[in-house]
Structure formats: structure tokens, C-alpha cells
Amino acid sequence: MVLCKKWTLAKPFIGKVTPDNFKLVKEDIPEKLNDGELLCEAVYLTVDPYMRFEAETGNAVGNTLFGEQIAKVIVSKNAKYPVGSIVRLRAGWRTHTLVKDSEKEISRSAEMGDLPLSLMMGAMGMPGMAAYFGFLELCQPKAGETVVVSGAAGAVGSLVGQIAKIKGCKVIGFAGTEEKCKWIKEELGFDFAYNYKKTDVDTALKEAAPDNSVDCYFDNVGGMFTVKVLTHMKTFGRVSICGSISNYNDTSVPTGPLPFFSIMKSQLRVEGFLVLKWYSRWEEGETAMLQWIKEVRLF
């Protein structure tokens, strides 16, 4: 038997997430496998904001926390995945997983070569695909355009800003600390970086994008921040809504002001997305991201 540790949902997320929302459970998994099965040990687990949404809507109390992981095959009766193989699973927060149907349970994995495996959970994983498809498909950026990214130091936002630079755009990023702002500007190449806790959004955009010249906005935070950004957008601007982290801890429905007048007046195209809508095209996104990483254009 192999001892598996898994983190389950102890109670629903209401307001701020605390340790009381989680429960560590131990279980034994048999090492004697049937033909076609394999036993995997986690190497990396993901911790992403979308997990909260999954737990609130589709993951009952007592279930293992949802999410992807990179794992190593430690016992195998599947010729396709010998011992030592690296696989990507949607197994959640657990140390060991018995895979009975590899075709359904194992996600396609890119050939990483000498690159860190952790990239498969970042730039080559769900955050990377959200950045690649959510930005390029919905914002359709053109060289010379101005792009605003909120949550710009996060897993998705930091990639969106870099992709925008690769596409020849001027990029304005907002983050929550001076250290994060320094990182996205000096290390990632953002043209402007503002600490939204110290600099008002209106003041920042009047400086970095005067005369309502924002073409594209990639939204990770929602709330009043987004309401303000929309007032600085150019006519026919494009908005991609990836998240709303400013509201995740709210215990009541947020009230106005609502941005509908700005959307109407500037004839904005606003679209939200769930990244799995492009799952059939992930190989395309992974190939592009991997190439940019190898070219040292994406960090």
C-alpha cells in the first residue's frame, strides 16, 4: 500500500479563505495494479483563483480540491507510461493518484526538454493558455496599440503583458506592491507599472494613456477598478474578462456604479471566457509559448 495525503474541502468558501476551509485526509492506495493502470506521485500542484469558483459551484464538501498537477509514474502496468514518465493530471490536491483510464485522466503534455517541469503548470499550463487565447483571441491586439493589464504580476497577467510586448503594443500594468511593479517593468518589459494602492487608476491612465487611448484591457480584478479603466478606453476598444479577484471575498452582491454607459458610449466589445473553451487548441498555444520561452522573449 502507498499512503496518499489529500486536501479536501471542509466547508464552503464564504468571505476570506482560511485554514478551516481545508481538511487533510489520508488514504491507502494499493500498489498491485490491473493491466493498463498506473500509480502516480505528485511533483507539482496548482494553486489558482479559479479553484475557488470550482469549489463553490461544483466541488461538494468532502471532495478533494480541484486542480491540475504534474506527477511521476512510480508503478505501471501501462506500456505507454513506464515508470519514471512525467504526466499531467486533473487529480487535484493529492500526493498519489491511481490512474485507471489513462486516455481520459491524463492530459496531453508538451515535450519540455531541459526546461523546468513547473512551466507545465504556468506558462505551458492553464494560466498560460488563459493568457494566450484569452488575450489574443478576444483582444486581437495590433502593433502600436495600448494595452492595460490588471493583476499584472499574477500568473496570467504577467504573461499577457509579455505577449502584448511581443506583439508590439504599449503595455500598462497594475499590481499591488512596489516590488511587483518593479518586477513587471524592469524584468518583464512593461512600459508603465503602477501600484494601484498608491496611485489612482484615473491619474495613472491620464499619464500613460492620455485622451482615452486604451485599445485593449485584460481584466483580472473586476470591481471599481474595471469601472474606471473602461472610462479611459478608445472607441471600439476590446475587453477580455479573465477574473474578478477584487470581489472573490465579498459576502454580498456588489452594487454600482455599473459600467454599461461607458460600454455603450465607447462601443466597447466586452467578453468573458473560461479557458477550456479552447482546450482543443491547447497544442497551438503550448507550441507558441514554448517557442517564445526558448527565444528568451517570455519569462
Automatic annotation (TrEMBL):
Coiled coil: none
Gene3D superfamilies: Medium-chain alcohol dehydrogenases, catalytic domain (3.90.180.10), NAD(P)-binding Rossmann-like Domain (3.40.50.720)
Domain Alcohol dehydrogenase-like C-terminal: 155-290
InterPro entries tied to this protein: ADH-like_C, ADH_N_2, GroES-like_sf, MDR_fam, NAD(P)-bd_dom_sf
Reaction(s) catalysed (UniProt annotation): 13,14-dihydro-15-oxo-PGF2alpha + NADP(+) = 15-oxoprostaglandin F2alpha + NADPH + H(+); 13,14-dihydro-15-oxo-prostaglandin F1alpha + NADP(+) = 15-oxoprostaglandin F1alpha + NADPH + H(+); 13,14-dihydro-15-oxo-prostaglandin E1 + NADP(+) = 15-oxoprostaglandin E1 + NADPH + H(+)
Domain of life assignment: Eukaryota
Enzyme Commission number(s): 1.3.1.48
Top EC category: oxidoreductase
Keyword Heme: no
One Pfam family of this chain: ADH_zinc_N
Example GO molecular function: 15-oxoprostaglandin 13-reductase [NAD(P)+] activity
Domain Oxidoreductase N-terminal: 5-102
Keywords assigned by UniProt, alphabetized: Oxidoreductase
UniProt keyword Iron-sulfur, yes or no: no
Biological-process GO terms, alphabetical: prostaglandin metabolic process
Family from the record: Belongs to the NADP-dependent oxidoreductase L4BD family.
Name of the protein this chain belongs to: 15-oxoprostaglandin 13-reductase
Organism of origin: Magallana gigas (Pacific oyster)
Higher taxonomy: Eukaryota, Metazoa, Spiralia, Lophotrochozoa, Mollusca
